Amino acid sequence: MTDRLQRFLFEHADVRGEVVQLDDAFAEVVRRTDHEPAVQKILGEGLAAVALLAATLKTPSALTLQLQSSGPLSLLLVQGGPQGGLRAMARTRGAVPDNADLNQQAGNGTLAITIEPDGGGERYQGVVDLSGGSLAAALEHYFRESEQLPTRVWLTAESARAAGMLIQRLPGDGHPAESDQDAWERAGHLAATVTGAELRELGPGEVIRRLFHEEDVRLFDPIPFRFRCRCSRDRVAAMLYSLGESEMRETLAEEGQVEVFCDFCNEPYRFDAVDIEALFTDPVSRPPDSQQQH
Fold first, then answer.
1. Which of 47, 56, 125, 194 has a CA positioned 20 to 30 A from the CA of residue 63?
2. In a domain, 289, yes or no
3. CA-based Rg of the chain, rounded to a whole angstrom?
């Protein structure tokens, strides 16, 4: 299991945490895109962030992290499914500066977290301004503003691996003991000593043991993650149908076919004249719904 998340809990204290490492999922996203190193890094951090956030959810849900800005990094979109699937994409306008903070890469940006419970249920979205100069700092800001949960986040990504750690103080029973306060402060000080290299190079269990070896910590079973794109020919057909017959026939006349590449996995979907004809005339071939995002 190369892509995995390890959850842990401080016994007798309202503190929980997670450490995640992503090899294959990060490598697959990089392989399928043609982004510069600065964008690859933020894609890796976004993948690690979504894995950490997804593991905090109480019920199986799809989770989307979306960063939009007027800066060079105009869009970062990372999605995690309830079965551990991850995918990510980015859009840029011009070169994204390397070794720069997020305020320079994504100026005047916002961060939105959307949670959609699996099988239906109320959809939730929280939106905050980007602050702090990094994606990790922006997530901490999100938890303060939207969740009211004291949370610390560390994210790192290099060419071979993305990784991250999250610690969180859980709501108590309304009568917090002094030991709970001490545990949270102590956990924060210990966690702050971790380096990006340690998060990437040591196993999640080893990271937890090194940081908190003097604490009474309970480890849970690892959670696997993997790259998985949700695109399909039916979803692309639904998107083309929503654009209208006139536009599709114009594209056919100019190009000889309608070709669409998935923004996440770069998979090509090609529709010739026969496919387009069936799409707009054959009720069996017509998609049941129209989904702009595939």
1. 194
2. no
3. 21
The domain that holds 262 is classified in CATH as 3.90.1280.10
By CB atoms closer than 10 A (0-12, 13-18, 19+), residue 32 is middle
Residue showing tokens 């007798």? 12
Domain identity same for 186 and 260:
no
Measured distance CA(87)–CA(81) in Å, rounded? 9
Residue-level pLDDT, tens digit, the chain, 294 residues:
589 999 999 988 889 999 999 999 999 999 998 899 999 999 999 999 999 999 999 888 999 999 999 999 999 999 998 889 999 999 999 999 998 999 999 999 999 999 999 877 889 999 999 988 999 999 999 999 888 889 999 999 997 899 999 999 988 654 454 455 689 999 999 999 999 999 999 999 999 999 999 999 999 999 999 999 988 999 999 999 999 989 999 999 999 999 999 988 889 999 999 999 898 887 665 665 544 445
- Output the domain CATH number for residue 82: 3.55.30.10
Q: Total structural domains in the chain?
A: 2
If one counts every other C-beta atom within 10 angstroms of the C-beta of residue 136, the result is: 22
